[in-house]
Amino acid sequence: MTKLRLISLFLKAGIAVPFFYFGIQLIAAPFFPGYSFIRNVASELGSDRSPLASFFNVGIFVQGVLMLIAACGFWLGSRRTGVPWGLAALISAAVFMGGLQSMWAAHFPMPDPRHGGHPLFLAFMIAMPFLLGTFIWKYGRTKALRTYVAAALLVMAAIVLVNSGVLKIDASQVEGLKQRVLTLTIFPLVAVAARILDRVMQENLE
């Protein structure tokens, strides 16, 4: 296998991330009596109250591994395509830390107080959409992709403001929905950016 094909394979791990993250929830949720995608957060599917806790936690751990692989793909692919060094390093670090966060959460499932992980994980998770969005904005080229990035960042910013208490909105009854909307502004961007980088690499060969 050539190095280019290996990097492309690494990036495909990034493309798989959102499908894996949301897919395991769709599989596990029907086995959890009374579970609501509106009220209940994803981590509850891995808690001691969930019939498929082990399945969910193993799935989240594997998703974390996929992100670690994707982080390598982002770094190696960026080096081959002339992405600015600083942006490449920050994106790779953010995706890598996001993978560690998923693995940590799976290893310490709810209600373990360690489940939330280190604040550094959260910092990188919040930074990840902005870094990936910058990459997509520059290399995605189309108006549709730029509109998608702008919308995702606006939605994420709104949810962060709600979570921080800056926006006085009672979202206690929609915690699950709020979390899923937030993750929709993060994990799909990993897939989109990975696909774009893979395409740019292929174009550079022509």
Automatic annotation (TrEMBL):
<keyword id="KW-1133">Transmembrane helix</keyword>
<feature type="transmembrane region" description="Helical">
    <location>
        <begin position="83"/>
        <end position="106"/>
    </location>
</feature>
<feature type="transmembrane region" description="Helical">
    <location>
        <begin position="9"/>
        <end position="32"/>
    </location>
</feature>
<feature type="transmembrane region" description="Helical">
    <location>
        <begin position="149"/>
        <end position="169"/>
    </location>
</feature>
<feature type="transmembrane region" description="Helical">
    <location>
        <begin position="52"/>
        <end position="76"/>
    </location>
</feature>
<dbReference type="Pfam" id="PF06197">
    <property type="entry name" value="DUF998"/>
</dbReference>
<keyword id="KW-0472">Membrane</keyword>
<feature type="transmembrane region" description="Helical">
    <location>
        <begin position="181"/>
        <end position="197"/>
    </location>
</feature>
<feature type="transmembrane region" description="Helical">
    <location>
        <begin position="118"/>
        <end position="137"/>
    </location>
</feature>
<dbReference type="InterPro" id="IPR009339">
    <property type="entry name" value="DUF998"/>
</dbReference>
<protein>
    <recommendedName>
        <fullName>DUF998 domain-containing protein</fullName>
    </recommendedName>
</protein>
<keyword id="KW-0812">Transmembrane</keyword>
